[in-house]
């Protein structure tokens, strides 16, 4: 089994780092924190406060080297020597979702979206719309970190996130599972409000600058457009995601 197929800790937890986000997670009764990892160099009142909060919440605290904490957090400038793994109950591997007896029918696939604010807002919108899953690859998309959590207003913790290695890997798996892949293009001839969708469909949301990547574009079933009668060339990707998500709600397909 390859690395991308193995169950990764990133398929189970959202990792938050920094003193304030960790304390907030520990204090939130609606969240289940798996563990706190504290750098062995962390001392003083701040470290003591985190240890007290973890003890109160019944969460184990592990010590690790400062370097290890930086690697795990993925942000050496802002981790402040502490991180927490928060259980994300609806997060799982895409492969597991596709293997279900009744796989999810309507999905979003993020392809090259690197701005945490956009990823967070998309997760919030898709969750509000009741979509069955948002595919967030581990490569090529903003990491699911405190900035994404903040942009989602905390919804990222319970969003239906599906993980995989890359957007191309996801597209190939989805095609093999019988999904149609639909991507947005301002010059497409078919409106997102009129396109006929198969039982299983995934909408690809491309990056802020480059749009849908070439390796995913070649697998797209059909390109669709969001009609814009006004004098605007394109929408922010999170706004486009909202249009798509609530069009599926309108159709009763979310």
Automatic annotation (TrEMBL):
One of its GO terms (molecular function) is RNA binding. One of its GO terms (cellular component) is cytosol. It comes from the Bacteria. Residues 15-92 form the RNA 2-O ribose methyltransferase substrate binding domain. Keywords: Methyltransferase, Transferase. GO terms for biological process: methylation; RNA processing. Belongs to the class IV-like SAM-binding methyltransferase superfamily. RNA methyltransferase TrmH family. This is RNA methyltransferase.
